[in-house]
Amino acid sequence: xxxxxxxxxxxxAGLSATAGYVDAIGFLRLGGxxxxxxxxxxxxxxxxxxxxxxxxxxxxxxxxGFAAGVAGGTWLSVRxxxxxxxxxxxxxxxxxxxxxxxxxRSPAMATSLMMAAAMGAANTIFQRDGEVSIGVxxxxxxxxxxxxxxxxALMGGGPRWAWLPYALLWxxxxxxxxxxxxxxxxxxxxxxWLAVAAVALLAGYARAIGRPHAP
Length: 215
Known about the structure:
transmembrane, globular, mainly alpha, 8 helices, Membrane protein, Growth Hormone, Chain: A, transmembrane helix
């Protein structure tokens, strides 16, 4: 993440906050499953495969939805990735809009799968040499890098502020999740419309600063 210009740090943090917001809504809606945190769903799938087939079904379906979003975002980036605006960001917004619009009109699982697919697409926005360079929904590695860089800075063995972008990414997700939990308590899944609005704002910002790139 430190390879990117600082303008892109804020785009990544905004995406992370949006992902945290959506994940909190999905978590509360699904009663303990995730639409962005696939490590958690993988554990739930494995445990469910042994103890509860329904748990395995829900977790497995969400993993498949997330993977479909990654595949779609990757395909669009390869085929139509030459403009200033990351096409994966447009896919993320479209999927969230479909999820919000389908709430109450489609099976509950269909809405959740679209949310998971949107989160998969979000992770394909930052790429370098065909590989994801910033994952905006999986925070374990980000937290490790944050603590490593901070420890090195405090010991005088590394750049003073190298920990900051990782802190922004992690804190963005936490803050977004707090917001998602609060909004879900007030309006339920309709709160996903706020995530759609956030993606629209981020798309405007992304268009203004140009495509994410790193040396």
